[in-house]
Amino acid sequence: MKKFFKIFTIEMKLFFRDFTSTFFTLVMPIMLLLLFGSIYGNKPTPVFGGLGSVDVSVPADFAIIIVVAGIMNLPITIVSYREKKILKRFRCTPMNPSMILFAQFVLNILVGFFGAAVLIFLGKLIYGLRFPGSIFQTALAFLLSCASIFSLGFFLASILKTVRSVSAVSFILYFPMIFLSGATLPSEFLPKGILKFSQFLPLTHVVNLLRGIWAGKSWGLFNKEIIILIGIMIFSVLISIKIFRWE
Amino acid sequence: MGKKVVEVKNLVKTYNGVTAVDNLSFEIYENEIFGMVGPNGAGKTTTIECVEGLRNKDSGEIKILGLNNPETDGDLRTKIGIQLQESSLPERIKVREATEMFSSLYPRTIDWKDLLAKLNLTEKVNSYFRELSGGQKQRLFIALALINDPELLFLDELSTGLDPQARHTMWDLIRDIRNEGKTIFMTTHYMEEAERLCDRVAIIDRGKIVALDTPQNLVQSLGKEMRVIFSLENDFPLENFKKIEEVTEVEKIGDRIVVHGEGEEFVYRVISLLMSNKMKFREIKIEQPNLEDVFLVLTGEKIRE
After folding, report:
1. Residue B94 belongs to a domain
2. Which of A135, A185, B93, B198 shows the smallest number of beta carbons within 10 Å?
3. Looking at residue B224, what is its pLDDT?
């Protein structure tokens, strides 16, 4: 436990020393909140079932945090540790090197929760954010989403060998996911064709689940999302275990 | 010779049908610096990493510190220190953080502050890894390899990329570490490094050991002639040198005279001859065969840099 805490603390410092990861994970979702909040305000509207624009975009912004942490931070860090033979150096010690991966996983979850808390705080402070659901249920949905998307990140780290290729793939996945999944622009405003396509984006299901649970809807309405997210997780973990290499 | 720390018997390792290590056997004794020298691609890193347990062997036996399975025995890791040929740390990790983190991974460690002082890194404790020079990075990796006070230290291509000054400092450091009672298994493709540093040397080429002995014995086994090279201010008939029985050949290259010969008195006799004839000589140089020549003779080719 002492080992884990030490490694976790240092990984956390490294995270905050890196401008790119801090910006995309924590700063950009805040900028999106302020941008859309200042354009649309937060008046209740029937389009959003009686909620305001900020009330639906805050849980959608959670999805952005999750995808940045899971598809960018996690695989890019792991692949760079492998490419630079840092993982190999840890294999020379009595520690099981998977502790590094676990530390990265926990770190990104906690950073995700922190980012979400900041959004909630700012939303309340500036726009009088409404939160019809339960904090516990929302946290649970958030965790399930992290588990699924982070597993997908491990899968990328397993199949891609260089930082160059994993960065490229991350960005290619990142942009359509944040714009077409309803994470930035609410799905109510997206054309039908795009909505069809967006069913193939894992993040769409994260957005739907988080928005629903946030709005206080029952889990039973999201069986499809839950099955897809757990399916992604099982598929990614199984393949990763089979093909992941330390060197 | 003390007790055996490492015993390797008939080690074989192939990659996709290409044999990297071909039936190697050797032993390393307590408190010696054992070196494996050879060109890049000879199989040195594969061998050392099999012994470290980082790679799985195809066949053969490896016994290290009394343990038979370096790949799986986790306890071994607490007793050995490893400097990899190629490794790195996160760019923005501080020297202090790296040493603290690696300290936390071992049940027993020595004080990292003393260690950094000994490796001349005290001023750099708060520097990021990326700000360190090549030599400083290498010293930090040695510090990390020593942090658990290992019985056996592995150094894979220790001085690659270091300038000559840093290389000599590193050699002194390695001798100090040995003098503290540790055993060292190192690889290098610098013949000079092996000759200066190692107690025993295995010369390896294309996955096989072609010779294994002390550097002195290896060089003497050549029984090869020495050369005395100098230039003279006045003319002196070269035939005079040939009267010395140890001399085998005399030649004049430009304004320099090269006298070849062998035997213990050879150099002394050449110089006495010059002095008794009151010849003033300049820029005198004595060349002896070295490990480089041994490698050349044994493999029929120059070491491939």
Report:
1. yes
2. A135
3. 65
